Amino acid sequence: MTAAQHTTTDPAEQADSVVTRSTRALEVPDLDARFRIKVRSLISWFPPLMYEGFSRRVDVAGLRGRGLVSVVSSLDFRRDDLAAAVAAPVHSRVETRFGELSGTGLGEPATRLGFDIRYGFATPPGAGEPRRYRERLSEEPVDCGAGRVVLTLLRPSAPPAERLVREPQPELDGLRLHVLKEPHPTVESLSEPCPGLTAAAGGPTEVRGRFGLQHTDVNQYVYTGEYTAAMEDMATRLVADAGLPAARHAVCRIAAVFKAPFSAGDDYVVRGRLFHDSERTVALVGLHSVGPHGPRERPAVFGRVEGTC
Question: How confident is the model at residue 5 (pLDDT cuts 50, 70, 90)?
C-alpha cells in the first residue's frame, strides 16, 4: 500500500502520543566532579529512550524503506542542581507526539511534519562526596532534568522542493496529528537579549576545526551530541577569557537549532559570544560551515548555553 493509497485510521482509534518509561543506572562518566548529571549525558540518552517505545508503535523500517528519515531540527535540555550517585537509577518518561511543526496545519505552504518529544528525568539524591560516590540519601526519585527534541521528517534523496514531508504517512496512521502550538526555535529566538547580563569585552571568539569519522554516527553525518559538546567547550573558553572561574563553571542548559548537517572531513568554525554577571552565564555559539571563500555567515548549527559559576 502506498502513501497515496492508504486510508486514515478512525481518529477515535488513534493514540494521542507514545509514552515510554524506562530506567537506567548512572555510570561514572554521566556525572561531573560535583556529582551533577551532565547536560551532555542527557543529550546522549535521548535517541535510544525515544526509539525504544516509538519503534513498537510505528513501522520505522517501513518509513526508511520508502526513503523517509527524521532529523533533529531543535533540542533543549536542562539539568537541575541535584547531587546524584553512581549506580543509582535514573527514571525517564518520554512522550512523543506526531506533529505539524509550522503551526499552520495541513495543506499550507509552510506545512512540515515531524515529532515533538518531551523528556523528564528523576533520580534519588546522592551524598555528593568522592568517598561516598555510590551512596544515596534516599530511594525516592527527585526531578533532575528535562528536555525537548523536535524531529523533522525528510526525504533526503528527493529534489530540494520535495524533501520536506507535508502529508501524513501510512506508517503513522495510528498517531493523532497535533499542530505545534509553541513556535519552533530559531537562531533569532535563541539569541534574545539576556536581562541583567553584560556582554563580555572583546568581539566574538573563533575556533576552527575539522570533523572526522569519530564524530559521526550510522546516519552518515556528525552526531548531534558532537555539536552540543563543541558549544559547551566554547562556553568554557569564553568563561575563562572573561576572567571567570572556569573550574567552577557548570552548564545547566543547552538549546540548539540545526539547519544543515556536517560530514566527516568537513571544516568548520565555532563562533561564540558571552553574556554574564557574577554568577550566571549565557554563551551564544554558532558552528559555521566553510566554503571556498571562508566561513559562511549563517551558522549551520546554533545554540544557547546557559551556566553558573
Answer: very low
Burial 167-195, CB ≥16 within 10 A → b, else e: ebbbbbbebbbeebeeebbebeebeeebe
What predicted TM-score, i.e. pTM, was given to this entire model?
Answer: 0.92
Give me the pLDDT at residue 184, please.
83
Give me the residues paired with residue 224 across strands: none
In the chain, where do the E strands start and end?
Answer: 18-25, 69-79, 89-100, 113-123, 142-154, 177-179, 198-199, 205-210, 250-258, 267-276, 280-291, 294-295, 301-308
Phi and psi at 140, nearest 5°, equal -80, 120
Residue-wise pLDDT for 92-131, tens only, equals: 999 999 999 999 999 999 999 999 999 999 999 999 999 9
Cα 128 from Cα 198, distance rounded (Å): 32
- 151 exposed, middle or buried (CB, 10 Å; 0-12, 13-18, 19+)? buried
Q: Would you call 273 helix, strand, or coil by DSSP?
A: strand
